[in-house]
Amino acid sequence: MKVSELQTFNSVEAAQDPLVQEELLNMAWEDGNIPAITHALSVIAKARGMSETANKAGISRPALYKALSDKGNPSLSSLMGIMRALGIQATFHTSA
């Protein structure tokens, strides 16, 4: 196969599948990497529609893009609003 025949991986397209969304978030959460978590949320929000996600989260579309950008640092309240808008629930367990 030639390099020119390879297709570029489109994470937003792949994230149309709810199981991919779940796995993406679980991997980012397990790593404990804040940029990875915000990136995962960004991919999912794009897959579901940024405007709709922003409306449900109660923030503007530009604010959503900014919060979930590579340089974004969303507040906990913004993060919770975005997760709520996406229908994402976090479950916590103590480790022994």
TrEMBL record:
SUPFAM superfamilies: lambda repressor-like DNA-binding domains
Domain HTH cro/C1-type stretches: 50-93
Top-rank taxon, per record: Bacteria
NCBIfam families the UniProt entry points to: dnstrm_HI1420
Matching PANTHER family: SSL7038 PROTEIN
The protein's name in its UniProt record: Addiction module antidote protein
